[in-house]
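Worked example 3. Consider a protein that binds adenosine-5'-diphosphate.
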Amino acid sequence: MDIHEYQAKEVLSNFGVTVPDGALAYSPEQAAYRAREMGGERWVVKAQVHAGGRGKAGGVKVCDSDAAIQEATEGMFGKKLVTHQTGPEGKGIYRVYVEAAVPIDREIYLGFVLDRTTQRVMIVASAEGGMEIEDISANRPDSIVRATVEPAVGLREFQCRQIAFKLGVEATLVQQMVRTLQGCYRAFTELDATMVEVNPLVITSDNRVIALDAKMTFDDNALFRHPQISELRDKSQEDPRESRAADRGLSYVGLEGNIGCIVNGAGLAMATMDTIKLAGGEPANFLDIGGGATPERVAKAFRLVLSDKNVQAILVNIFAGINRCDWVAEGVIQALKEVQVDVPVVVRLAGNNVEAGQKILAQSGLPIIRATTLQEAAERTVGAWQSDASQTTLKAVS
Ligand code: ADP
Ligand code: MG
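Given these inputs, the predicted complex is written out as structure tokens:
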């Protein structure tokens, strides 16, 4: 789960990281009022969306009067911000953060990620802050400083000092760097984050080390341990298909293609998507119904996939170990009877109670296409979708 910049800043400041003064606003008037309340002469208004690259896309504006704040935020509220991280559809702006403008002397990149190769939290830093990490690694790979943290002892001060020196931070500011690095690391581990990014971390002309931007991503599977974090969820920033699935306890990933996939287990889902591609199709989603799925759960999954307008064919691929093929078959039938389905549905069942499942499908009288192997299932789905699509085109032409 991602959170907004202002939320990440609040989280990090609770762990001792210094952030600028700022306040949240839900309207242009409120934004101007917030700035007056805060005082000062220059402010930065920042669109709160779950994506980076806002500065270049017009989502970060420096203002020096009430009127400028109103004007800048009027151009933001209710609009979609399209940055290189949002995809072409963009993300809606419903909140704006008004922040005191900080006199920047230097911008540093600072990121904490989970490195699966070393199985450690890895710190990635660069003296080339402000740029996105992808650009830094493409243009200035030599500027990147990396360090991994030994989990048994945590992030030690000497390591932080080493990083600070490698970044060329002045000796008088090293203690502030240590505090920032340790604060981010503690927030990362104690809150089960998978990513903390401060870009830029700035050194101001009056010698302060400040996190000017902050991004945090959390491990969804650990959110139950941190109710104060799960409360920060903002569904307006998520793919509506994915949040609807999460609310129903299903794991769903929306994709760009048009073949809906209902599968059990992430490994099988990956294999299914590969096979669909091999057969010439493009998956519209990745939906994992998990183990021990009841007919109701299967029906729920089915309705969810059907609600996606891009879906033009559905492939149900179940390898039942803990699951039962007969329950899956019942779920499919339940859903098909309730919802008007005008796309081809292919079902491939294997494993536990497969004969009973096949029988239920065969006796249902519903136009379900059955398949025995995964390859056959994928080919039939893509074939059925293609002939369906050509019929639609013919209808449109005639
Ligand atoms: P994004 O990464 O989404 O573009 P940032 O928060 O990093 O958004 O802002 C982009 C740039 O705007 C920063 O690199 C910094 O130069 C400037 N900026 C952001 N916040 C402030 C601030 N409070 N004071 C001064 N400059 C700022
Ligand atoms: Mg940034």
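Take a moment to read the result before moving on. The pocket of adenosine-5'-diphosphate (ligand 1) is lined by residues 20, 44, 46, 52-55, 60, 99, 101-102, 104, 107, 130, 199-200, 212-213 (CB under 6 Å). The longest helix spans residues 374-397.
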